[in-house]
Predict the 3D structure of the following.
Amino acid sequence: MRGSCLCGGVVFEVTEVLGPFELCHCSRCRKASGSAFVAGLGVSTHGYRLVSGRELIRVFEAPILVSPPAYTRHFCTRCGCMVPPAEPEGDWLEIPAGLLDDDPGTHPDKHICVDHAAAWYREVDALPRYTLQEVVAHRRAASSPC
């Protein structure tokens, strides 16, 4: 499936969706997106390919709040849209699902960091909801990003 930024300068392809498909309500994701949450979809870095726009991608790294790693956002310098990194590291990568031009064949499976949700946001679905503390504990126990 293909994905692109708002101006179409950054284009990428993804061949393997791993999950999770999370709706993150942390304050940093809300500010980065300008919305109630960021819809992040886990994909395989082995099935990710940047098609065009490498020269447009820059990175913003916010200070560490609790523990490493820092909050990092890659973005297109032309339109400001969040985009995947040009060269992701590891086996797993989270991409902003709103960038996808094609159907990923899956749906969000949970809300995370709900203890940081915007005061004006109202629940509209029945997906499981996890606090930041619950997400951290689960990921440490599982030793995986899912």
In short: The chain has one domain: 2-142.
